[in-house]
Amino acid sequence: MTTLAIYQRPQIARPLQQLTRFDEIAALLAGAGIRLARWSTDGIGRIDDSETLLAHFQPEIEQLKRQEGYTSSDVISLTPDHPQRLALRRQFLQEHTHSEDEVRFFVRGSGTFFVPLGDRVFRLTCDAGDLLRVPANTPHWFDCGEYPDFTAIRIFTNPAGWVGHFTGGETFH
Question: How is the cofactor bound (predicted)?
Answer without folding.
Answer: Binds 1 nickel ion per monomer.
